[in-house]
Amino acid sequence: MLQALLELLYPPACVACARVLPGAASFCETCDTALERLPPVRCRGCSEPGRFPGDTCPRCRAAPPPFTRAWAPFVHEGPVARAIHRFKYAM
Ligand SMILES: [Zn+2]
Ligand SMILES: [Zn+2]
What we know:
Blueprint: H1 2-9, H2 29-37, H3 58-62, H4 79-90
Bound molecules: zinc ion (2 copies).
């Protein structure tokens, strides 16, 4: 019941452009194609394209970026609580 409710309020959408997707996928076709065009080898720290020893470019090796560990793609403040709230007032 809760799962169905969440699917109703949060249909599967592309994580890059928020386009609603027909099925369970992370990216729409457009973004998926764009992703494939990115260089497959890049720095783990700053995404600088190139081949580096240990996947870390000299810049990041000298000074690791502070956001490496703070990166959080899915920040939701109580999505379930919000869904229930919206459900109550929509009915
Ligand atoms: Zn997309
Ligand atoms: Zn780097």
